[in-house]
Amino acid sequence: MQHGKYRFIVGFLALPLGLYALFVVWPFIQSIYYSFTDWTGLSPEFKMVGLDNYRRMLDDPIFWKSLQHSLIFALVLPVVTISLALFFSFMINVGGRKRRGGPVVTGVRGSSFYKIVYFFPQVLSIAIVALLFAFAYNPDSGAINSILRGIGLGSVQPLWLGDPSLALWAVMAVLVWSTVGFFVVLFSAGMASIPADLYEAALLDGAGRASTFFRITLPLLWDTVQSGWVYMGILALGAESFAVVQIMTTGPGGPDYSTTVMVLYVYQKAFRDGQAAYATTIGVALLVVTLAFAALVMRLGRRERLEY
Amino acid sequence: MGSTSAENSNNGSAGVGRRDLIKRSAALGLISVPTMSFLSACASSGGDDSGDKAKAGKKTAKNPLGVNDTAQMEFVLFDGGFGKEYAEDAVKIYETNFPKAKVKFSATQKIQSTLQPRFNQGTPPDLIDNSGAEQMDMGVLVGKSQLADLTPLLDAPSYDDPNKKVRDTLRPGIVEMGQFDGDPVWIMYYAYTVYGVWYSQKALDSLDEQYPETWDQMLAVCEKAKKKGMAGWTYAGKYPYYLPFSLYPMIGKVGGVEVLDAIDNLEPNAWKNPAVKACFDAYYELYKKGYVLKGTPGLDHIQSQTAWAQGKALFIPNGSWVENESANVIPKDFDLAVSAPTGIDSSDKMPFGTIWASGGEPFIVPAKAKNTAGGMEQLRIMLSEASSKNFTSKVKSLTAYNGGTDGITLTPGLKSGVAALEKAGDNVVNPRLQDWYVQLQKEQIGVAGLGEMMAGRLTPAEAIKKIQGYADAAAKDSSIKHYKHQ
């Protein structure tokens, strides 16, 4: 059986790996190359400048600020989103009380309705979500401040996106709102594959909701949670955070640099300031941060896989 | 149940595990990546200086630029607030004048994504309206010698009068704006924008007030408005770099043009000039006394213009595009008007009426274009009186052509803009920060400085200190090109 195995497998892998190399690995190498040049992005001429861009980046206070915000995104967003999603999907799938004649393990009443409701934001493009919330955050006539006025809190009228101490959190809340549904569905699928007899045994032993969750659901769902964690972190470092910051915030990136993130800074340097080489340098830094994040999560989350 | 499967456990004898195979194939893929010399030929694969430029045609009275009458001319327009009809009309004239030439006209909002690769390949079109959100950085284009000098166009006889050069038919400041350092003129701004304080004459009449000329009067008008439940001011809080549209000419009026020039030249302590402080204090007072519409720092330009058009605020700093941009929310009887900014008092260096007006819609002819003469000829046609009138009547904006408003009905805002320009006479200032140092102007002076001050989070003194710091940093930054007023 060994004979010809290599050829067989390589035959299948060549095409996808070739595409991957051309469209993923190749651009990576190119941008690393450009980060050592002074390319403007607006003319074909450039020369090598060695480590100048990197030196400049280390001295750039806006870079450090954007790095700090990106790290906050990468740490806070997954924690909040995944905790919420775990809670919701547990309540939808497992958390219900036993009803007469029904199955032993079941979700709360109306759980199938909630499932659809949670997934709904996922249907909207992130650009539309960001625009909707930009209107909602309008301090003059937006939905949030209008509701506050409506319930008699007319004196509490925050500027939301106009306030440096609130803006970053306001932006993050939008990302949580728009992504939590996806993870609810993902975790629900994972929980559906956990055998019911495990829960039954736990119930017979007198386990409550909390201990069922922490001792049965979470350990058996760990793989899914871990990949969800990486996925959410990359999303928070990358395209999604760019879209919301670019569309919603003052400036964008403000007020007073309070919401600028690395992807936004890459974009501004490349396409506003005509400094494509410096932008790729920041892009390389972003690559390092993203890889470090993924490696960290993988290492911290390594556990023995349970099979059931 | 619950058995564990350790990684890489039992496949030692079974040849290659899945994981190993993937690792090896990935390594193979990496090795097969070609060498660095191939690398440099990628996104910036440069064509050599094109040897296939169109041959020059014969210079005649009708064809002063010597356009080759059979060469193709390609024109890419920014399809924005002004639409594309005015350019299509001008292209028709070109086609009539050069019936054998083929004109390739296209209009797009994506200037940068469409044209950046073509600059990188060395095959740009012959005429570009480099405008909009995807504008390519002019400083970089000039710095990298990508643009053609438009001096031949400016020195050519104008389309309407062979005895008058094109240069002499333009509004004040247009030629200077196209220069970066030295004599060459790289950009031809086609539209002409009036910046200032925009308001509803009807609302002002209802308060029984005139437009205030001194700051004390301004505060009095705002107080009166406040009593009627109307805020004095609003502005694009999320884009506070709209504030300079009235603040910079005010600084010029109070302290003289030299103050603005020093600021543009990034001179040390330029912002520490007493005139700057006086004007910052004046604006800060609007915030302190509660004359700024509540929630303004969280509004974007459209939201603030809408609140203003609804009569929630009296004044807004803006440019003449506001009439078109907010046309659907400005009531019919609004009686839109613009005024030069209010000064401090009678001791100001320049008279009331000093206004900021400058070119918009920057047209460029790339140096590596095949038919540069054709691109310039197309501009010469657009700068004729007929084309200019066509533009003004179609899109409610003035052009760089000085005049061209006789015999057409002007909208209220446009009429008031023309009147403001007449009142200003030679007292037209033209601060350049927004085209020379975009980052400094927008996110540093605008968002981090003025925006914070008008939201009450910085005092004028703190704002000036912060802005001076940014300006000093920009002056020292070797990665940006620096410019000086001539």
TrEMBL record, chain A:
The chain crosses the membrane at residues 7-29, 71-95, 116-137, 166-187, 229-248, 276-298. One of its GO terms (biological process) is transmembrane transport. It holds the Pfam family BPD_transp_1. Its main location: membrane. It comes from the Bacteria. It is found in: Cell membrane. Keywords: Cell membrane, Membrane, Transmembrane, Transmembrane helix, Transport. Residues 67-297 form the ABC transmembrane type-1 domain. PROSITE patterns: ABC_TM1. The keyword ATP-binding does not apply. It is a multi-pass membrane protein. One of its GO terms (cellular component) is plasma membrane. The keyword DNA-binding does not apply. InterPro entries: ABC_transporter_permease (IPR051393), MetI-like (IPR000515), MetI-like_sf (IPR035906). Belongs to the binding-protein-dependent transport system permease family. This is ABC transporter permease. The lineage of its organism: Bacteria, Bacillati, Actinomycetota, Actinomycetes, Kitasatosporales.
From TrEMBL, chain B:
This is ABC transporter substrate-binding protein. The lineage of its organism: Bacteria, Bacillati, Actinomycetota, Actinomycetes, Kitasatosporales. Belongs to the bacterial solute-binding protein 1 family. Gene3D superfamilies: Periplasmic binding protein-like II. InterPro entries: Bact_solute-bd_prot1, Chitin_NgcE, SBP, TAT_signal. It is found in: Cell envelope. SUPFAM superfamilies: Periplasmic binding protein-like II. Its main location: other. Keywords: Signal, Transport. GO terms for cellular component: cell envelope. Residues 44-65 are annotated as: Disordered.
